[in-house]
């Protein structure tokens, strides 16, 4: 059966142009229909209407992809290709991202709902940066030589796992793909990647670029499918040596369980958060307001690291709230393709309903809706930037991850008070006076600010392992210790 | 008050005092629930040694709370790397001071010869503690250039917190040291569950932990049945990381429990069926010595045991008799006898397991070259056993036996050897013997194992 394709002519303010690319399952360098012949509808969150249908991949497709990846790893990838060459291919792919950056940004805005301008300036730009960063690591995967005694040479090799499974979410579809491809390919692994069924388009466009860049067939395989079918198949596959997952904590557990029950594959998880943003009396107020805005409303609050709990010291609380509210009110909600839009719709009906449910729980549990709290417009999934005040620590909106443009602003007295509150998440761990945050990333005087070379990942139930930076290479290499006897007789 | 018992050391007048309570907050205490105690036996004689307290789930909770308090108040970020280094070195010194007593206790409970426990297990353990003591003040992060004018980014490694550690019975002291040393060096606190078969040396070492000066709650020792204490640690919401060494089947349960509870970090060190390859250019005498050591050391009760041997056909007929002769040289006997180079297997359960594999080897048609016959005296004895004429589908070739039982096969080409070696779901270790340098590097690269 031949592959599905997607064609569209964009005639918007920020992007004009035609797109036309195959949207089948991408295995061994070829697009085709899925094994079951079924498709998944792709919905435009600005309108709620179907844009196109893409091929659905299921467990059988995962099987075929793993076989292709294994063959590619054994014959035309892995350590058979020197790191310098792997780096060159990654740079080539980055070049192609750059050449097609407008098109990729447009697909992202159409499929995910984020604005074209943000997609281009942030998502596409960082994706290119990450690919180039890991291209530079590809020929620098070093082991150690270790002194034991003169009759032995002992050294370590950092070898690729082989076939790795990668499952990515819908909040930064293209960027999450780059974060996964970069370190895995740099270290020589072959990949079976499952993008989110909600946002498949940019990943599918990238498949054509992967071929164009010159990666051997089977090195990267992409399957659009549902979590409980394709995702589960990856997590439990006996031919996959490692799985990397970014998404909700609830699903993260299932991935780790499936890994445990199948072949004890290596697991890294990048999960949810309820990150505290703390503003002391002596902060530069306007700077704090601007960063706080960015911390919770950027990407429509759909960030694992969103600063969704804003703690403000009592001395500046009133002033902060006034300015923060004014700036939040001024955010422009609109068509993702309009040049002046800041915020587009949430990604899907399911997410829209979830967030509205949290907002209603805030109202029901007695918090004050200081700003927003309602749907914006009548079509699509826009939600007004929402601020809650007068909350209690046990309210759902304070404890649970909302993943929407909803912030809670909480007053605190002193450092001891706020550190105790800040660390009190997931009903789990309280840390005492003078403890630093129990968090994988601490932003001082900024927020939601990431770089390809600085590691990112979670403490506690926010995850296992780190992405970005040199640290990510550890996720994709297996250490082999070699002992060579130079003369010890027994 | 938990009681102490005095165990007699065979062929001497000395006794070893062992506290039989749970070690929590630097004190030996009884269980709060008083489940049936754990009975401990001497595998060389099958005699009862003593009973120790078994931890219940509530005892585990108490130990975890003690470890959490210590992490927050006296350990973790409250103690410098220099101080952690000093304490770990002190502990190493005390173990070295008491090595004879510890070795005798290890021999009573595990069966391994006293001289091996003392000069290998304990010596390695002391070395391991000193090694990690040296790292304690060298925990480094990175400073990363983003943009000199606008931003500084640094990474800061921090101790994970409270670690549950579950160790096996094959190297009780050594596994204890391997777990305790790095965790303490970085500032974690520990709830340690030694194996219910071999809890005695862990309890004795706990005394030295207190003597060295570690604050209460930094290390807690809770012997317990696997399905109680082990399961509790793996699923505990107050534990940030679990480290487990043991069987693959239990490793899965630990990993699953971590996933369904609080996604705690997990590290697992599991089983193996490690291949040994003898190429035609090898020094035959030396290769035979190493191959024999590979399967007989610790009476084959080693996760990295070289339990599958593949010999190149051109030297097979020469090599195998030499190997058999060397294997026969090993004296397996009571560990207090100076002549013994190896002891019994650790328990009745293991004894039955290993013999059942030997029987299956015979039944599936392999040839018994040496061994394969039970002794009549008390004790869980398994003598060196070598099977030849094996097939890849035999249980003795596929499954981990954990006893002094070797399967020997043949190969023709280098690629065949590699394929035979890699034909397993395990991947802990592999060995090769060759004097062809290029072959050594080619083959070691191709072997799918964590240690070559």
From TrEMBL, chain A:
Cited Pfam families: Aldedh
The protein's superkingdom reads Eukaryota
Q: Which InterPro entries match?
A: Ald_DH/histidinol_DH, Ald_DH_C, Ald_DH_CS_CYS, Ald_DH_CS_GLU, Ald_DH_N, Aldehyde_DH_dom
**Keywords, in A-Z order:** Oxidoreductase
Q: Where in the sequence is the active site?
A: 270
The biological processes this protein is annotated with in GO are: acetate biosynthetic process
What molecular function terms (GO) are annotated for this protein? Answer: aldehyde dehydrogenase [NAD(P)+] activity
> For the Aldehyde dehydrogenase domain, which residue ranges apply?
36-482
Query: Where, if anywhere, are coiled coils annotated?
Result: none
The family annotation for this protein states: Belongs to the aldehyde dehydrogenase family.
Record-given protein name: Aldehyde dehydrogenase domain-containing protein
Automatic annotation (TrEMBL), chain B:
Which InterPro entries does the UniProt entry name for this protein? Ald_DH/histidinol_DH, Ald_DH_C, Ald_DH_CS_CYS, Ald_DH_CS_GLU, Ald_DH_N, Aldehyde_DH_dom
User: Is DNA-binding among the key words of this record?
Assistant: no
Is the keyword Oxidoreductase in the record? yes
**Domain of life according to the entry:** Eukaryota
Q: Which Gene3D superfamilies match?
A: Aldehyde Dehydrogenase, Chain A, domain 1, Aldehyde Dehydrogenase, Chain A, domain 2
Please provide the record's keywords in A-Z order. Oxidoreductase
In terms of PROSITE patterns, this protein maps to: ALDEHYDE_DEHYDR_CYS, ALDEHYDE_DEHYDR_GLU
- Single GO molecular-function term? oxidoreductase activity, acting on the aldehyde or oxo group of donors, NAD or NADP as acceptor
Describe the location of the Aldehyde dehydrogenase domain by residue ranges: 36-452
Catalytic residues per the record?
A: 269
The family line of this record is: Belongs to the aldehyde dehydrogenase family.
Which PANTHER family does its entry note?
A: ALDEHYDE DEHYDROGENASE-RELATED
In Swiss-Prot or TrEMBL terms, this protein is called NAD-aldehyde dehydrogenase
State the organism named in the record.
Answer: Multifurca ochricompacta
